[in-house]
Amino acid sequence: MTEYRRLRVALLGAGAVGSQVASLLLEHADELADRAGATLELAGIAVRDIDAPRDVDLPRELFTTDPETLIVGSDIVIELIGGIEPARTHILQAITSGADVVTANKALLATHGAEIFDTADQVGASVYYEAAVAGAIPIIRPLRDSLAGDRVHRIMGIVNGTTNYILDRMDAEGAEFDDVLAEAQALGYAEADPTADVEGYDAAQKAAILASLAFHTAVPLEAVHREGILGIDKAMMDAARHAGYVIKLLAVCERLAGETDASATGEAISVRVYPALVPRTHPLASVHGANNAVFVQAEAAGDLMFYGAGAGGIQTASAVLGDVVSAARRHIAGGVGVGESTRANLPVVAIGRVTTRYQITLEVEDLPGVLATIAGILSDGRVSIATVEQNILTGSDDLAPGAAPGTGVARLVIGTHTAREQDLSETVDRLAASDVVARVVSVLRVEGD
Length: 449
Ligand code: NDP
Ligand code: HSE
What we know:
Blueprint: E1 5-12, H1 18-27, H2 29-36, E2 38-46, E3 63-64, H3 67-71, E4 76-79, H4 87-96, E5 100-103, H5 106-123, E6 127-128, H6 140-146, E7 152-158, H7 161-173, H8 177-186, H9 195-198, H10 201-215, E8 225-226, H11 234-242, E9 245-256, E10 268-279, E11 291-298, E12 302-309, H12 313-333, E13 355-365, H13 370-380, E14 385-394, E15 409-416, E16 419-420, H14 421-433, E17 437-446
Parallel strand pairs: 1-2, 1-4, 2-3, 4-5, 5-6, 8-10, 10-17
Antiparallel strand pairs: 7-9, 7-11, 9-10, 11-12, 13-15, 13-16, 13-17, 14-15
Bound molecules: NADPH dihydro-nicotinamide-adenine-dinucleotide phosphate and L-homoserine.
């Protein structure tokens, strides 16, 4: 057996992901040593409660409630606690004490990434975070390394497994939102506080990370436009299906031309998370369950799709261990770590300047001239109509003889050509205020056609 240099690995957290990482590190120790060129010695596992039940059996003597002491003298620190504190403090301690860090913590990287990467740069350490976006799917390395010579134009990602699980079950089975959320929680996909999933915070954190890598620009979380899926109901799902779409929570990261005088190219970027209509023929429409997918459009490479398990303990552990092997190889090879590339420094535009297509669903009075009034409001707002479908809910013709005219109700589904978000939202406000519109049922963006 080859004798390798020993590297001391500290694991912080033994929950859904951490317990699987520990188990695989111990079980595959010899294979990992051959691949890393170093023996990865699991020095200890820091948790809150040593007696808490674990998903897998792990040697009790490895557990500690003293992360600070465990970190001292470690070569690689794996942070799988989650959240901001104490994860931030432990990571900074690890970096300044000479360790490389592996983390899956998107919440921390999206909010304190600059501080962590700057600190790592100062001491020549590396921070690896493949598991922070889309669980098991390799997407950080492809964006950071494989596509570093290309120009990424657009990313559309399903990057939250919980919401994809919920929307998929609602679409396929007509399931109710609350029932499916409880199942996603029981399956271990949801964050400790599931509002992070359903209100789009988790996807926004991942979008900020993806956009930073794709556009070589530090994207602050506050610059990401975020909407969740709480407003999506069965009627919207049915209407989407009827029109040939499926509703997905998307993270869209886009390079925009001619947006700014601040750079020679006039380029800016948009980073946004919202539920959108995706044509059923688009590859993202066939992403089911808790799976994730990231669809990347690059200048030279063309369209690329990265697909797989976006959540789950053992699946995410795969990405974490890949990072551990990379960290070990770098540690053995020596030299300084490769920092983040953020020098493009492109401005992030507000949502109002984004252009996309929309589907507006209205309930209107079934009266002569109503369609013309609505078309006029859209035209005045510089929103061009691409399609209109009308369904009579209560037809004037069906009313009892002698009933007052105007009590019939029609549902109008208007598909627009590409429009600017600012124009669209002002137009929707005018529609809502119009006498002929009983109710704006929904406004959804259309992406991917
Ligand atoms: P869990 O909540 O399952 O586990 C958290 C672990 O951290 C527990 O073992 C807990 O200890 C420990 N812990 C919490 N606070 C402290 C503390 N103050 N000191 C020491 N240990 C502490 O989290 P997950 O495993 O689900 O997630 C870990 C990370 O991976 C997060 O950043 C998450 O966003 C990310 N991630 C998770 C995925 C998933 O599918 N679960 C997928 C992709 C990324 P104890 O057990 O004693 O309570
Ligand atoms: N809660 C997250 C999700 C876990 O549902 O995708 C993976 O980051």
